[in-house]
Batch of 3 targets.
Target 1
Amino acid sequence: MTETYPVYTGMKSAGPRFLPWLGFGLALLALPVFALTGLSLHGWAVGVVLFAANRAVAVGIDRIARGKMQVTAVGITGMGFISRGWITFGILFAYASWVSKTAGVVGAISFLVYFTVDMLVRSLAHVAGGGIKKHPQETV
């Protein structure tokens, strides 16, 4: 008897199409705030570049996970999520140590804000898009 396993088909979302890009919109809105308040524009740029790179790697990992069993896909995306965080903050630590402490700290804070907004919005959109489904045998 051959069993079939659910296959991961990629990130899903619901709602307006701009939602997955909200983190980038927030980064653009933050630029005049940084400029007017005298915060480090260098730090803003570091945060935005790391956020964009982090997001690009997330999309790449999602593509690698597609077509795999859901259990495998969860492992791939979960390890990618954790690894991206460690690598990003390793880069920020090195940047603050060797290039510019101010830009590194401001970059870390701005990255955290963009990343958190992006993660929350995409998670909520995933759930709204039917990302969490109950199996027929499960009861509420």
Target 2
Amino acid sequence: MTRQPRPSRTRRRASTLIEAVICVAVLGIAVPPMLEIITNAAADRADAVNTERAAIFAQSIMEAVIADAASRHDGLGFAALAQPGSYLDGFSQRNAAIATAHEQIGMDYAISISGPVDRTGTENTDESRNLYRVVRVTVTYRSADGPDYAMPVSMLIGDI
């Protein structure tokens, strides 16, 4: 009878202290930059969300101005844009619900209304061509990690 060779026992090797120290050093070097990348990605995402919110806010304000310019109610209509001060006082009162929700998250808006302009958006020496006004809505909002952003939206509005 022949004897079968015994299977060799595999030798278990334990981690040494030097290996553990090297592992901790590698993690200590690799983790901080990864945390910074994650933090920057979160800030970029927050800025993207706030930019989308600001665009929606600016669009809502601009649509309210367009609706006012098309309105036949007293104190409204395209002619009301000729008196920006009084128009904007009434506008902020009429549209407080739109603004309040966005102001609570740190957004604000400003509206500027130009004098009469032609269809190119510039004042024409022939006043009969100056049938429009440029309305600019600028929404300002906080960035996640730096200065405030401003989103200007302009539109040429004429009498309907």
Target 3
Amino acid sequence: MLLLPEQRTKLDESSDTLFYDLPRFVTHVDDAFIQRLTDLYRERLTPQSRIFDMMSSWVSHLPSDLELAWVEGHGLNAEELAKNPRLDHYFVQNLNEDPKLPLEDQSFDAVLNTVSVQYLQQPEVVFAEIYRILKPGGLAIVSFSNRMFYQKAIAPGARPANPSGWNWSSAISIGTGL
């Protein structure tokens, strides 16, 4: 089911580029969540994989002992991304203004989106892009949290009926059978 137009709105309709113009060196989730997410990555990601860390920031949740072939980062603030020690390369792009990723088809083994999917106004377009850049059988891991910049989240994420129920993470595999 696609989102209705009114579900794509945000309390703050200004450009996300302006909102993230200044770096925000904050941690959006607690230590227990970070540990569970890092453990999930350790369990599901394969050594020497090519990873796309979508909507990333200065903090990496990738296990420090996991050797990866390449980690491509994406976000809205270059200063934050430059401080992320796991990124081999990064680019800045507002996916709500331009959801087309400047990445080759079938070029990543896994795509990660850590507690940021609620900001996407066209999630179906971005998820089609994730599918496009994943290798066949690739893995997408999307984690969710009740902690966010509410004014920049789309309506379903900005007004949860039970915010405490969002404090979980999930892994889905896309690339085969989708």
